[in-house]
User: Fold this.
Amino acid sequence: MTKKSTQLAYIQAYEYIRDQILNGELERGTKLVEERLAEEMGISRTPVRDSIRKLEQEGLIKDKRVVNPSDSDLRDIFQVRTLLEGFAVRHCAMYMSEGDLDKLQECVKVGRSGTMEQVMTANKEFHEIIIGATNNPVMIDIFERMQSIIYLFRKTVVYHKRPLLIDEHQDIYDAIAAHDADKAEQLMKAHLQLDLEFCLQRMKG
Amino acid sequence: MTKKSTQLAYIQAYEYIRDQILNGELERGTKLVEERLAEEMGISRTPVRDSIRKLEQEGLIKDKRVVNPSDSDLRDIFQVRTLLEGFAVRHCAMYMSEGDLDKLQECVKVGRSGTMEQVMTANKEFHEIIIGATNNPVMIDIFERMQSIIYLFRKTVVYHKRPLLIDEHQDIYDAIAAHDADKAEQLMKAHLQLDLEFCLQRMKG
DNA sequence: TTAAAATATTTTGTATACAAAAACAGAAAT
DNA sequence: ATTTCTGTTTTTGTATACAAAATATTTTAA
Assistant:
């Protein structure tokens, strides 16, 4: 068992608020009031402020409100994301270890057969493994930041599940396994484009 | 005259510390002590802490010390930078406005004829214009963050000036002006590769 | 009734105090 | 001399108080 809980209040606060944002308990656009949150968690304002500042830097909070990305924000994020993942998947096709390949395949498998929660995690992991394989912490960090903003739409994406998503993952995996970098990149780009359109579509509702 | 000075202490502190880091008054690896800085600026610890946290997020401070990037950190940053600027320059070759093209050319011109300070600014601006032309705030933000870390080596780069740099800028400009996206991208990648190697070289000294 | 001004309330920014933790220094033991 | 322990000092994390700024509300005038 990993015991990751820190006793530090500002880390608790950070995790607490972040979770609330990501699972939708704090809706997009909600104003965050330091004192209210502090009281709610039984700590003082100071660590709450720290955590809000941090989340602001990460892009989950903007002007003391839960961020509410516009169409164009989402497009911008996906443009960068496509760039990074395009590079990463190409890297995978050329250098990926057997171990990571197996992990990728497992993600696809679980993506087909698991419970809703498992499917979600596996699909997320699929992309994380690909980015992670670059072994470039700067890249991974940028990716995770964008990921968490995209993740704001998690519920939407879950409830209105995109049907072909898992087939696209399968195809990407196949291209990687076949060491076909060009194809892998092209498939990834198409995949992300569809993801973006799906997000945009759902955002309107 | 733009009057951008904010009265807010934590912004002052942020700018103050950031400047000190970027112009080398605070050397890489220096421990930052909140109270010392607070006293130095005649304010309390609270806004100083805020600004340190912010700079930590931006990557200029790590574990309360001015960041001291390793070889591999620099490589990682340049890998991402190459990706972004490769995309951006390609975009420029296809869509750049006449106005921006002129500005780019001006940068090259000043890069040849200006004072040392002017040359430095112009060369920096050259890249900023290219990234800025994407009109993608997410991308611009990531770029600026990396830029400021690279900028830590400003002095080094100035004193040991890289001779061919400005010719490379000229070539990139020409490719953009000729709408040759492939060539522009390829030249940019080569340019950044040389820049990286120069940085790495100088880092040892 | 609506618009504007004035007032009250909330919320944030900053200073300060204190306790916990970390870093440091010196003494004792190997 | 090197390491380990002890105590001291520094530095950070957190709580709290208060003032400035921003918001909301009420009152007044048209």
